[in-house]
User: Fold Glutamate--tRNA ligase from Streptomyces longwoodensis.
Amino acid sequence: MGLVRTALFNWAFARHHQGTLVFRIEDTDAARDSEESYQQLLEAMRWLGFDWDEGPEVGGPHAPYRQSQRMDLYADVARKLLDGGYAYHCYCSQEELDTRREAARAAGRPSGYDGHCRDLSEAQVEEYRAQGRAPIVRFRMPDETITFTDLVRGELTFTPENVPDYGIVRANGAPLYTLVNPVDDALMEITHVLRGEDLLSSTPRQIALYKALIELGVAKGVPEFGHLPYVMGEGNKKLSKRDPQASLNLYREQGFLPEGLLNYLSLLGWSLSADQDIFTREELVAAFDVKDVNPNPARFDLKKCEAINGDHIRLLDVKDFTERCRPWLQAPFAPWSPEDFDEAKWQAIAPHAQTRLKVLSEITDNVDFLFLAEPAVDEASWAKAMKEGSDALLRTAREKLEAADWTSPESLKEAVLAAGEAHGLKLGKAQAPVRVAVTGRTVGLPLFESLEVLGKEKSLARIDAALARLTA
Assistant:
């Protein structure tokens, strides 16, 4: 979800400024990335409603847009950096690095790379090669303070001792993120980058690399950066991609609308105004200014996310709502068989369901009483509603409903109200046994509209069945 929020802010920023949004696939990790994950990513972007001006399926002047297809470009730039003295081969083993870092910590010094291989003699290089060591490529950080203005956090300064030389190519020749992203930014002429706060510490290193690329004629300039606040999960811990609530697929399966989800995510660090939480994508784009993003961590609140999603469900046209619910009215979600589904009943009940849902998946339990032969009785609801005297109340209610006008929910309400009055009960108490008898639950869609849609014959038969159970 943090990645979705980052993509949203980039999209809104580009659209607000009529800029060019570049969608780039970072798939250099062969062990993790696959064609399936690539297709899932594209599908997620389409479902969220994001469009892009350059990238997969769209093309553009800087193709290809998958990093796995750009390896020759990275190798060429790495050679130029080595030849120009901006980078060097580092032969240090991991064990040697760990030993020296531990010693630096013990001495109270910075524990980053200590520059051991920065200025090796030819003899030292030959000795390492004779030992069969395969070097990585490190970028040579300039001995100077790096200051830049973050679009979210203002002016930031990093001193040399806190930004040591860093690896850009593995010993097997595979380029690292620290090389490929700045190279792609340079070649694709990226001007602005909004990304997570976790990447802030790498920014001074990348700025130094951009300057080297400018001197080599690879880059035209250094992008502006904005580092977005962390999204926090339970216990005020950073929301990890391994946390269940972090998965976009989970929210899709639960029936969140992309409009509702994006509305809520935009509130994690930004707001349209102090008194308006519900807004459209168009309103977001019109108002979005990255300088208004709050740098402090934002907590993901599932209940508020559901509430905002519910508001967006109610904003839908009824016809749109009925169609968006379709997946949850069919297998594997629906407990009824396809032939028992009644389209006319669904169309009749849909407007009443729309006013009650927080997520679309709730529709299944709310309307199952219409399509099942018998209601799926929730035993806790039964125990709560069927108190002593419920059988007498149900008999009276059945008698009143038998004589009611079943084309009028108001007439059905008056019948249950009259039954309650006959037993000294208010409507709320009187309708609970009727609701459980007919729908199986104490909570659900408006009762009298539900009775009307289910029909007189089935409704009375279910009251009879409840009476038989109560008196057995």
The mean pLDDT is 95.
